[in-house]
Amino acid sequence: MTNQPVLADGTLRRTFEMRFTSTARGARLARRLAAHRLDAWGIPYGTRPHEEIVLVLGELTANAVRHGHVPGRDFHLLLYVTAPHGTVRIEVTDSRGERMPPRPEETRTPDDEDTGGRGLLLVAALAERWGWHARPGGPGKSVWAEYALLV
């Protein structure tokens, strides 16, 4: 975990970051810890924003495990809220560089017979915006989503 920095304009940026094993158990633990952290930051359990943010985070961590898994490597979760702007950013980084997700504008609706491919559609529906970039300083990628608390 990191300190909670105050930005130059006096706004508070609450930050949580941690590495998790690239397993289903690691994804579940990331979801649970992030849900607890959001509640502690004033985005309470049982509210629509809390549930939607945790759902987006769950999709991104599940994708990191399913599509970004490299044996012996963890995934990294960065979650932060900038107040008073009310933007929550979720960033999940994995070590697999040869499997990249589609760009947001290239995401397609899967056919009825497809067994996957709906997670990023869910992320797109709930997040204000999302995308991905190559992992700086190493192999892999970071997939991120931003959720606007205030409209």
UniProtKB/TrEMBL annotation:
InterPro entries: Anti-sigma-factor_SerPK, HATPase_C_sf, HATPase_dom. Residues 21-138 form the Histidine kinase/HSP90-like ATPase domain. Residues 94-117 are annotated as: Disordered. The keyword ATP-binding applies. CDD domains: HATPase_RsbW-like. Residues 94-110 have a biased composition (Basic and acidic residues). One of its GO terms (molecular function) is ATP binding. It comes from the Bacteria. Pfam families: HATPase_c_2 (PF13581). Keywords: ATP-binding, Kinase, Nucleotide-binding, Serine/threonine-protein kinase, Transferase. This is ATP-binding protein. It comes from Streptomyces violaceorubidus.
